[in-house]
Amino acid sequence: MKMLSEEDQEAYNAHFSQYIKNGVSHDSIVEMYKKAHASIRADPSFTKKAPKEGVVSKRYNRKKFNLKQRKDRIRQILASATKKQQ
């Protein structure tokens, strides 16, 4: 991070834009990691966070249907196809 900031300022700004936005410099990043490791060593137990409100997870795969639902769907597709032919 320090080397890139000295050599190429544009690449530094592009690569570390989130660090810059949050006010983290190449000097403070080492201290940030040391503090994180110390807090983990102090209490290594995992505590699950509560899910964020208002966030809906995306599902890209179609929900699985049982046999009756699949046959009903085929019946509907065939009915609409025969209706279009007439």
Count of DSSP-assigned helices: 5
Extended strand count: 0
- Assign a percent range to the helix content: 55-70%
Report the average pLDDT across residues. Answer: 90
Q: Helix/strand-derived class?
A: mainly alpha
* Biggest beta-sheet profile: none
Distance between the first and last residues' Cα: 69 Å
Gyration radius from CA atoms, angstroms: 27 Å
Tertiary shape: elongated
Uncertain stretches: none
Q: Secondary-structure element sequence?
A: HHHHH
Q: What is the percentage of strand-forming residues? A: under 5%
Walk me through the structure.
The structure is a single chain. The chain has a domain at 2-42. The protein has five helices and no strands. With 86 residues, the chain is mainly alpha-helical. The chain has helices spanning 2-7, 9-15, 17-21, 28-42, 67-85.
Characterize this entry briefly.
This protein has 86 residues and is mainly alpha-helical. Helix content is 60%, strand content 0%. It is elongated and about 75 Å long.
Question: What secondary-structure arrangement, pairings included, does this model have?
Answer:
Layout: H1 2-7, H2 9-15, H3 17-21, H4 28-42, H5 67-85
Question: What labels would you give this structure?
Answer:
86 residues, mainly alpha
